Every structure is written in structure tokens, then in C-alpha cells.
Amino acid sequence: MDACFLGIAELAEAPSVAVVVDVMRAFTVAAWAFGQGAEKIVLAESLDEALALKARHPDWVALKDGPAAPGFDLVNSPGLLRSVDLGGRTVVQKTTAGTVGALAVKEASLVLCASFVVAEATAQLLRTRKSDSVTFVVTGEDGQADEDLACAQYIARRATEAVTDAADFLRRAGESHAAAELAEGVRQGVHPDDVALCLELDRFPFAMRATLEDSLMVLRPCAVPSLPDEALTDGASTEEASTDGASTDEASI
Questions:
Q1: From residue 92, how far is each of 40, 171, 222, 235 by CA, in Å?
Q2: Does residue 251 have a pLDDT over 70?
Q3: Statement: residue 197 has pLDDT above 80
Q4: pTM summary value
């Protein structure tokens, strides 16, 4: 698998397969939303669009970066989200980097959104598809966020190697600028456990696939069949993953 790592601004054209990485915190939060029962997540292009969607669908849950704001139900914090029951709900998410990155590659044939909490499932899905080329979109800090790059590199390696030690990748993420800002309270809308939750490797057993549905970019959990590590070296498995917009109940959460 040929992996390249690009910032959002470096995307000259839509790749065939894109893995959009936002560890702290958009796609950790998205995974937690599915873990709390959300059916789907609509990735909004702007705060105004998020509010407009909420106005048209009052039962939807609107979520944003930063402090609480009128019209929004939640903030982009896994620590605050983990106690919220989202059973069967639709979440509208707008963040500074993660949702922007996903929308930037919406024309790709496969768009996966990832963080450490879904790293193994994401790597498994890449293995089953046997993609020749994968573009990892490093969303934070104009493509320089080390927590996102570390996660992207870990997933890329895990997709092709039977044994991969996550310790150094997690260490880099934990020592990143974003982790320091969250721990020091520089950012708003933060829970004290956010950094630890963002570094919880493989907390959830599903990948997350984004697809265009009626002009909206919609993220859903995607169940991934287990693939023996032996298949990484002998090509034994040809099983294809289900990537056609698996519902929450299909994702075993």
C-alpha cells in the first residue's frame, strides 16, 4: 500500500481512498457519539449550516468546537459526550479541522474518518480493500499536527504489518501541541479527561465511513470483518468489508 500524508491545503485533487485523521478531537468525538448510540453524523460546512440543519430537524443534535453557544446542544469533547444518551439520534458536527478535511475529499471513492480510538478497525478495512494508494489527510495545524500525523502513520503501518507497536505513536500524540493546549485549558469546551480519551487505542470496534447522501456528507459506523494477521504476509484473505453505509446496529456497538 502506497501511503501519502497531506494537509488539507495540499490536496490538489480528490484521492481514490482517503483517511481523514483528527485525533483531538473531532473523530474521537464522532466515535464516542456512535458509541453512545447515534445513528449518523452529518458533517456541516459551517456553523450557519449546522444551525440551519438543526432548525429544519429539531430532533437532531448540533455539536461544535469551543464553548457552548446558542442553538448548539453539545461541544466537541469526548469527556463531556460520554455521559450523553444519543440512541437513534442524528448529530450535526462542525469543527475547525476534522469536518473540513472530510468535506475536502468528499469526491473520493472511499472516505474514512479516523483517530486512535478506531485505529485498528480502520486499518482492517484498508487491508480488506487492498488499496494500492491511500491518502491520509492530516487535518490539524495545516497538516503539521503531530497527533494526527502519528495516528495516520500508525494506521498506515498497521494496515500492512502484522506486528506494530503503538507506544511511540501514542507518546508523540500525548506530547503534541494540541494535547498540551487541552491539558492546560487553553481551548474551551474541554473536559479534564479529553486527552486520555483521545489516546485510548482501539476503544471502538468499528471504522467510520463518510458518504454523500442527498448533498450532505454523512458519517456512519462501519462494521469490519476480522482479518488474521497472517493475511498481511501471505495474502490469504480476499474477504471484502461492508462499506456501503453500515447502520449503527451493524457496527456492533
A1: 9, 31, 18, 39
A2: no
A3: yes
A4: 0.89
